[in-house]
Amino acid sequence: MSNDTGPNFQQNVSRALNDKQLRKNFKFAMGNFILKRKQIFSDESKTEQLRQVGNAIKRRVLSQLPQLLEELEEKCTRNGIQVHWAETTIEANQQVLRIMNAHQATRLVKGKSMVSEEMGLNEFLQQNKIEVVETDLGEFIIQLNDEKPSHIIVPAIHKNKQQIAEIFHQKLADTPYTEKVEELNAIARRILRQKFFNAQVGLSGVNFAVAETGTLCLVENEGNGRMSTTVPPVHIAVMGLEKVVEKLADIPPMLRLLTGSATGQLITTYVNMITSARKPGEKDGPKEVHLIILDNGRSEILADPQLRQTLQCIRCGTCLNHCPVYTRIGGHAYGFVYPGPIGKILNPQIEGLKKAGELATASSLCEACAEVCPVKIPIPQLLRRLRNESYASGSIATVKDGGYKKNVIETIGWKGWEMMNTHPHINAIGNKIMSRLGAKIPKIGPLKQWTRYRTAPKFAPKSLHQLVDEEGIQDE
Fold this sequence. Notes:
Elements: H1 9-17, H2 20-40, H3 44-63, H4 65-79, E1 82-86, H5 89-102, E2 107-110, H6 114-119, H7 121-127, E3 131-134, H8 137-144, H9 161-171, H10 181-198, E4 201-204, E5 208-210, E6 215-220, H11 224-230, E7 234-240, E8 244-245, H12 251-263, E9 270-274, E10 288-294, H13 298-302, H14 318-321, H15 326-329, H16 340-351, H17 353-356, H18 368-372, H19 379-390, H20 408-422, H21 424-437, H22 445-450, H23 464-471
Parallel strand pairs: 1-10, 2-3, 2-4, 4-7, 5-8, 7-10
Antiparallel strand pairs: 5-6, 6-9
């Protein structure tokens, strides 16, 4: 969650570009991610076929999303999972709090969940005197340092082991400084194990929710997700409404795409399929399972035939790893929960263009994100659409705060450009004026910003038509 005016993106970018250690950390990490993905998807033909399958599954889901959500609720309820609906993040937070209060719970352990970050859940619960502990190692590290995730998959990717060692030494009482990865892992494991056993409620995200069976699928590599969902007596799962899939048979190809794109693995260490609370005779598992399904603007995105493709995202993070902008500035520069290419199209639609529309301009439109997206989201096309929406007129604008960049001076300027290029005599006069005065136009306002990173155009003393006439070339 962000403030009402949005982050100062330009300042964030400048700060990130001047942080040499941050640039070094990202250069090392991104290279590894790209290499691992190439190794796991080495056959281009088979990879493309798999991507087509993933795209088809998600498009089919979005075409019948309301019905699938109703089916998911019905099947989950039949399995004993209690389903709650939240139109806004405020409602979702209140529902988590109500469940906590119903069990007089004051301690919560969390598996990794981007939706909970979107909700601002940690801050909300802490304000209500509830202890919240992130159990994913990356999330645990940045929580200790009072930071937000810098990456969808690897929250602490912006830190190297020396920085992590210093955080543990300073933030954890009686912890000696060590840079040995095994020792750092052991320190985190020792602390978190006790938190798992003492927690009254566990919370997780959902990678996929199967409408056909009412099953919640959760993938991870550390075991913390399994501990969060089975050790505490109550499990709360939170998900965006787009995470549903139609059939159990859809899970294998989606897992293959998710894990290969996210971490370069054939499959993660743990794949959790949660269909009910603990049944009679079973020795472990929670006594209650709750599923909170969050909208937060997704229904409006779904209503647009083009922009609904945003909801195909499976949160693999590979578009971040291949983005030349993200790999140089990191996730915190964006100022919102979702960074990188997917954040550039998702945040403006959720938060509004006035607040987050500037993110859509932070792209070279190189299309690297579209080339690697496992479900073939045309991110560059959607970026262009959002840029156009920023200047759209009244009834034409469909995205929140559409047309916020439109102004009288620019409108007059474009009308003048249109007139100049549709009337030959005006065009000839304009060319003569620009050939003599164009280079002397003061670099102020938008022109100053444009020429900050670009060479100002030089206007030729004679137009192409004049040169052709002087050469005596006849029109055919």
